[in-house]
Amino acid sequence: METDTVTPGLAAYLSGPEAAGLLLLDGSGGVTLADGRAEDLLGRSAAQIGADWPELRRRLEAEAGDGGLWRRPSARVAAEVPVDGGSRRLVFDIARVAGSGGSGYLVRLRLEAEAEAIAQDLRLASQMHTLSRLYRSIAHDLRGPLNTMVVNLELLTDSVAPGATGDQLEDRRRRYVRVMKDETMRMVRYVKAFLAGVAPPVYGERDVDLAAELTEAAEFAGAQARRQGVDLDVELPADELQVRGSADDLRQVVLALLTNALEAQPDGGWVGLGGERENGAVRVWVEDEGPGIPPGVEGHLFEPGFSTRPDARGMGLAVARAIARRHGGDLRLDEAPGDGSRFVLELPAARSEEG
């Protein structure tokens, strides 16, 4: 996923967050480095941070509610930290790192309000870029039904004009009306898809029928697929795929994956979109028959700023994975049969679906 424009705030994020503090932990979890910003945020000197870290670490583990917090490649935890007789809510981004001296952890910490503001800016920038690549095709597809309606309206006008005669006049009139009705409904679908894309995003969490969001995303991306001669194959179960989260965010993830798959096949091909529920999880996949992911870059696909194109800076996949993990799931690249690529989004099913 790549982007054409980078805002100053986004550029700061991609090149190294200015407002974040940094901690470096060794393999046993001890603090080996704390920069000045980390000292400011935690209200402690580097030595005090090291001494207090066992208690801070327990707070993170309790907040995460996950005994495997330190076994994951990366994690994000928000926790209340005592500072100067009060408290401060911080977001800790934890990444496992390896070097010549062994493995350890890099911890980036921010004020929660600042972290959420940057995350929302990233989501909006990624959404705007994805949608900008699809709007042209939507606008192109709107011309078809409009032209058909104009022609049939003229024919209908002629058929009801004074003096119009013919044995099959009533059949012709019905046909003109039927065509106009069909084309009107087609325009309604396009306009609804368009409005869903430009509507202000609502990030509140609720139970979301992911199957409905997938259908809408496929309708939206379908215009681009038709324009490129790509067969978009949607395979969804008859029952609902209920998850808990933000419908806008999850739709953005699927649109980003579909857009990437379409861009990999500018001269025709095939894209598959599917979903299923299994063992308390909802799984969605997007696969294509394009050239696939170049060898050696799989480990960098989800890094902010990375793109497989040398003339672009990517962020869509990084944002998509961050959204998935914020929903308690993950986004990964799976091995695709033959050429092409296959991305899988996995989310915990809503409580009502787990049974």
Sequence stretches where pLDDT stays below 50 over 5 or more residues? 1-18, 311-315
Helix-strand category:
alpha+beta
Strand content: 15-25%
Order of helices and strands: HEEHHEEEHHEHEEHEEHEEH
Cα radius of gyration in angstroms: 25 Å
Separation of termini? 36 Å
Number of helices: 9
How many domains would you count in the coordinates?
Answer: 2
Strand order of the largest sheet: 2-1-5-4-3
Average pLDDT value? 76
Q: What's the CATH H-level homologous superfamily of the largest domain?
A: Histidine kinase-like ATPase, C-terminal domain
The CATH class designation of the largest domain is: Alpha Beta
CATH topological fold name of the largest domain = Heat Shock Protein 90
The 3D shape can be described as: elongated
Share of residues in helices: 40-55%
CATH architecture of the largest domain: 2-Layer Sandwich
Structure description:
With 355 residues, the chain is an alpha+beta fold. The chain has two domains: 8-112, 2-Layer Sandwich (Beta-Lactamase); 203-355, 2-Layer Sandwich (Heat Shock Protein 90). 46% of the residues lie in helices and 25% in strands. The chain is built from nine helices and twelve strands. The chain has helices spanning 8-15, 36-42, 46-64, 112-159, 169-198, 210-228, 247-263, 316-326, 351-354; strands at residues 21-25, 31-34, 74-83, 86-99, 102-111, 206-209, 230-235, 242-245, 269-278, 281-288, 330-334, 341-348. The strands form three sheets. The protein has a five-stranded antiparallel sheet. Strand 3 and strand 4 form a beta hairpin.
